[in-house]
TrEMBL record:
Keywords: Glycosidase, Hydrolase. Residues 3-159 form the Glycoside hydrolase family domain. It holds the Pfam family Ricin_B_lectin. This is Mannan endo-1,4-beta-mannosidase. It comes from Solanum stoloniferum. The lineage of its organism: Eukaryota, Viridiplantae, Streptophyta, Embryophyta, Tracheophyta. Residues 213-318 form the Ricin B lectin domain.
């Protein structure tokens, strides 16, 4: 078990400033360390816990506690008034922009001489699925979490409150439990978290890396079923893949088989023809979409329809590659997730 103490939740408002932050964070960290040197010390940023940019100029320098400092951030679709972006702008660009912002304001802490763990201690969405921006945001955030194998916590566990805003039994639509606390509010939402509950990167591992093919909209991974049909299903024990970059094959580890397509609207399968066929050569059409060229010379993307009763993954016309369309491409988002955990 790992135990830590967070100094302060979501600093905000006109009284927040960097000089007070440095003073009180150092004081709080030293107090915790003195009381119990075995505890992790979890430190929040400014502006609703999203901003650590000031640490680029002036690191915290708690050197005797360096191995127990953890920085935490929060992120939602509505962070910094960005919810409308998901509905009015091309989604690939929106996700790129948000992840770039996260890296600039906090993700930089993962790298460099002052590198430290980053804990996404709050994220979430309306689990009734009634908020379109929140639904789209989840797919974007999941691609960020799997990239860095970050630890995380969902807001929130509770299904309702004794009283809130003067209302007894007020419902919590972001809650993992329903409002009677006897079952999950949304098994579909919970399923999306399956992969990020697994350890993906082991710094002590000497084994070669491989990839999982992750579909963030559904939370499923690509797996090889009977008759060499590839389908989207559980990420637990998911099929492992090898990929060497644009215009190369995606091979099933331990075999001579690779992913291949035939024509639009058809499932893709495994093939032994991995070196000479355009149908078996894949590229990153965007930061989220994998495409190849079918037998008719047409560029097609992997596509999994979460509303379908079938688990088969098809190839369809790529959506949103022009950087202008606001059509939702998330059914085509497949993330190559690097892992070295066996």
């Amino acid at each position: 078990m790992v135990i830590g103490i967070s100094l302060r939740n979501e600093l905000r408002g006109p009284l927040q400033n960097q000089s007070v932050w440095y003073k009180n964070v150092k004081k709080g960290a030293k107090t915790i360390h003195k009381a119990n040197p075995n505890l992790l010390i979890i430190i929040s940023g400014l502006n609703y816990d999203i901003d650590f940019t000031f640490l680029k100029r002036k690191p915290l320098n708690l050197l005797n506690m360096r191995n127990k400092i953890v920085y935490e951030i929060h992120r939602y679709a509505f962070t910094e008034g960005q919810a409308n972006w998901f509905l009015t702008q091309p989604l690939n660009k929106v996700c790129d922009r948000i992840k770039k912002e996260i890296m600039n304001k906090s993700g930089f802490l993962l790298k460099g001489k002052n590198a430290a763990p980053l804990f996404v201690s709050e994220f979430g969405a309306d689990q009734k699925g009634m908020n379109p921006s929140g639904n789209l945001f989840m797919g974007c955030l999941l691609t960020f979490l799997v990239d860095f194998d970050l630890d995380w916590a969902v807001w929130a566990l509770q299904g309702n409150y004794y009283t809130r805003q003067g209302k007894p039994g007020m419902d919590e639509p972001f809650g993992m439990f329903n409002n009677t606390w006897n079952s999950l509010r949304s098994p579909q939402y919970h399923a999306k978290l399956q992969l990020i509950q697994q350890k993906l990167q082991d710094p002590k591992s000497k084994k070669p890396k491989y990839y999982l093919l992750f579909h963030p909209q559904s939370g499923k991974c690509l797996n090889v079923a009977t008759n060499n049909v590839v389908q989207a299903s559980s990420c637990i024990g998911a099929s492992r893949w090898i990929y060497h970059g644009d215009r190369t094959s995606i091979r099933l580890t331990g075999t001579s088989s690779c992913l291949t397509t035939s024509r639009e609207g058809m499932p893709f399968t495994l093939s032994k023809d991995c070196n000479n066929s355009e149908k078996s050569r894949w590229k990153l059409a965007s930061n989220y979409q994998l495409s190849n060229i079918d037998e008719n010379g047409k560029e097609l993307c992997l596509d999994f329809d979460t509303n379908s009763s079938s688990n088969k993954v098809l190839v369809r016309k790529c959506v949103g590659l022009d950087g202008k369309s606001i059509d939702n491409p998330q059914s085509q988002w497949f993330k190559l997730v690097s892992t070295n955990v066996y």
